[in-house]
Amino acid sequence: MGADRTMATQLTLVPKRPRGSQEIATYFRKDLRGVVSTHRAMFEKLLFQNEKLPLELADLFEDVGNTYLDISDRISDLHRPGKGPKQHRPRRPITRR
Percentage of the chain surpassing pLDDT 70? Predict the structure, then answer.
């Protein structure tokens, strides 16, 4: 599961910030397609590999929730010209139960 989480996290990092609004929209769409595709594959693996629901599924739900909140913040920041990025919500670290 660790490698899968690392891969999902790496997809949401911004290596180079696009400049124009169209370039930004294109970048986010490409980034989101990758994130959604990775999460879908991880959910399918964890939901259908066993009869019981694995503990890793709970971790995945938490990770996915935090990822989508981060993406929401980034998109909202695009609509705040001149105001700078807002203070992002603190995320809960993923912990083993």
Answer: 62
What is residue 67's three-state secondary structure? Answer: helix
Residue 79 burial class via C-beta count within 10 angstroms: exposed 0-12, middle 13-18, buried 19 and up: exposed
Token pair recorded at residue 32: 């989101």
Residues 40 and 58: their CA atoms lie apart, in Å, by 15
| Residues 13/21, Cβ–Cβ less than 8 Å | no
d(CA 22, CA 25) in angstroms, rounded, equals 5
pLDDT for the residue 95:
62
Domain ranges of the chain: 1-11+34-82
DSSP annotation of 83 reads T
At residue 80, φ and ψ (nearest 5 deg) are: -120, 60
Tens of pLDDT, residue by residue over 46-82, are: 998 888 889 999 999 999 999 999 888 888 887 777 6
